[in-house]
Amino acid sequence: MAEEIRISRDFIEKELPSAPPLYVSVYLMTLACGGSSAVIAEKLGALESDVLRAWAYWKDRGFLQKTAAEPAAKPKTGSIAELATKKPLPASSRPDYAPAELAEYMKHQEVRRLFESASKKLGKFLSQQDMSLLFSFHDWLALPIDVIDLLISYCVSNGHHGMRYIEKVALGWAEEGIDTAEKAAEYIELRKTGFRVVLRAFGQGNRMPVAAEESYIKKWLKEYGLPLELVQTACERTVLQTGKPSFPYADSILRQWRDAGVKTSADIAALDEAFAAKKAGNAQKSSEQKPAGEAPRKKPAPRQNKFINYTQSEWDFAEIERLGREE
User: How far apart are CA 76 and CA 83, in angstroms?
Assistant: First the structure.
């Protein structure tokens, strides 16, 4: 963080009176510590998208050229069906809506119901900024109204009522293509059940997975198409065989099961039996390959020396050989 910030008198007299207070705070915080929009938002307790819009504002004014985002694009009014098919705007361009624009959109029953539902779930009256943010998820990120409603329910059920957190989840859903109620329900179930089951099987059920671990779990359940109970079994076997949680080791087990067409616990049992039978057969075959009538080899008699009167278990054999050579 900079120890000292220099601001010209001209900037103070001409820019500060007309700039929104939050934008001024963003400008000063950016000069002071820099960092990403998420860092600035965290320090100011603001929405990350508001930080991006502030940077766009200062870019237009000739400041913060290296960090400012492109200015926000205003949406066109239209039917709710037309808005639902819009291409998502870049993450740095979340629109802001004037009260008159929101009033126009609220003529659509779906939008009005979304705001009413959000108000009840969040336990507060929505401000103009709150409604602007929520509607942007539909207009900007192209998330359907019912998906946004599920998103709010999901956040609230996890104890998160803040709009900054809700915005981050919305951005994540948009990036992952969660654009139907079915995909949203699958995502929620995976987070609430799948992740916790896997980590509990690894003996780490008191946390959520990091990004790399989350990728493994999604691959097992979606790409491999394996039931959660089989994933759990593979994770438990990993700990038993290695003594520690290992996502790559569990992945090797699950990949083999997928290639073998395993779908149930019975399939695993059959695979285990086949492996045990093959192992036993190989051992029997190795025993039968010895020439007929060949007497078993006898171990050579121990070398006679002055140490022979001691039991072998009391000596290091390498040391005995060394002493023998010194005679």
Answer: 9
